[in-house]
Give the backbone structure.
Amino acid sequence: MSTEPETTEDTGPEGPDAPESPDTERTPEQDAAAGGPGSKGAEPAGDAGGPERSEAEAELAAQRLERERIERRKAGRTAPIASGTALSGKAADLLAAVRAVESGEQPATAVFAEPAAPRRPAPEPVRRPQPAAAAAPAAHGPAPEVVEAVRRVLAEGGAPEALAVQVASGLGEGADTALREDPWQLLRIGGVRPEQADGFARALLGAECGPDDERRGRAMTVWLLEQAALAGHTALELTALTAALARRGVPDPDAAVQSTVAEAEALLFQDALEEPGAPAPREDGDEEERPVRVLAGLERYALAEESLADGLARLVNSLPKEAPGPWEAAAAGASGGGAELARATAGHALVLHTGGETARAEPAALLGAARAAGLRAFAVCHTMDGARRLAALLGDAGGAPAAGTVAGVLSGAEGPGRDAEGALDLDLLIVLDAPQLDVESGAVLVESLPDGARLVLSGDPSVLWSAGPGRVFADLLAARACPQIASRTPDPGPLGELVSGVGAGELTQVEAPGKEIVIVPVRDAGEAVHRTVQLVADSVPRAIGVPPEQTVVITPGHGGAAGTRALNTVLKERLNPGPGRFGGFDPGDRIAYSPAPGRTVPGRVVDADAAGLRLECAGEPVVVPRERVEQSVRHGWALTAHQAVGGRWPAAVVVLPGDAAQTLTRPWVYTAFGRAERHLSVVHGVEQALPKAVAEAGPKPRTTRLQTLLRAQVPAAG
């Protein structure tokens, strides 16, 4: 590795933000947001109007319709597919009690009482509305009188009145009454923390407020499960949940969980543990008691995970035994690494493909061969940049586009369209960047496929998992329920060698004669910010030939002296200074736009008017309504690794300040380093923490149920 090219350029001052939790996976005990609920920023200039439905609203509406399809499909099932049905004894009794609570046949206290209820079948639990934080925004917002009523209640309880619109949107008509009856409903609003909800409740309830209030216990239980979802879990082990409730000052955690389950605000599950050495079934048909785990989760993620398993099983079981002629032609037409993938896809409904950036050529070859054979085939990526790179591999000169994004297909803006039954009009769907699929997107996508279709999930298993809950790709790889094709095509050059070593747990010294890799040692966060701006604005353009607009800065978190906020402040001052007259933005600013949770679209500011902030993202115009700018648009010269995953830039500057040492993991380093196509600069202030993280810190565990659910329906591929 070479040292940094010389430069004498100076930069602006270090950003003022205080250190806070970086944008990495969180535990249930961490807050949902860094700032308090009263934080408020400026808005773009212009009169408030009636803007057309935003991209986020269109996507959420499309997903809502797909979830209705899922509900109808599940309602038509003759019986629920349940894990743990082969259990006996005490484990079976507990499972029956859990199901009885879910169905309403039995009070929740029976889950923890002795003796356990007798085992009996139970129907599907009644589906409850989704939490307020997940609800789609209304087309025109809440009624002014509802907002005003909520504002008065918030003021009476000492909460920021700026939350009124959020509360009214989240809790709906009668939100003021709901808050008075249960002040802890405030905790359902994103960014509100338990201590803030407690203070609000004390102000409204006075002497009636206490830590043992049943309403508080339910709210804390739901909040902890939401925090778990932010950290990637689809459920929590019951012991972990009750321990977290105790740490939050809930006197009787078991009673809090019982109450939450009885109100159908959470569900309980019991899954058999598939552990080495677990007792095997006996020849007489009886089984020894097997180890189990009791889990608690929110209904929306339980429904998504069950629907995903059901949909995958449906695809596998609906495939014809013999491949039709077009599939044989597609297998014969693919070449190189794509040929093996094409043969596997011809004979199987679900195929997993693993590999790095260069290996994307293999699913691209499959896609081209399938379309040439007359099959209806389409590919989706996590980002628009990924779709652009895939289209470049296909080399299409015309005709209908063959590649898009997951969000675009789900919203109907991209893709092949739908058939008369509402399913995607496809024979083959290829999903690249598959590790970025969360359980909700994965469920909607799989349920959209018709019977007999093939699904190929392709991705690099070493990158960060999805921003949303679940670990779909990793769970499917571990379940071994379908063929797995591992690419043997490595990424080339010094960057490919470095990233491959990180994936294997080694931080190796790599020869970089063309300055493909540069290490920049720094002593503290202030120097890290200073050197980062030098690299982006001067050193990389002069020595490497990559302009600032084609260089991405990646840092572990949003807060702190070298987080995205601080770096974006000084990078804007250097690269596009201005007064920020459009809600803090100026034309030419690089931005990171989040049309929906878990999605980040890089772009730039074009203008602003009465309709909102006008952006250009991947060559497409986007208008963000002024009321959504504060929560969905940030400056984007500097990103977190989660925001950058799925994209590639000619040059990347990865910033590792000293306070990031404890947050680094191998997947984070692998993802950050892998965003560079031609040049990588590492602003290095963590000393030996970097090689230690690469060698020892694997992905943070996530609690999910997909493997268990899938194994009950699809036999292992062997």
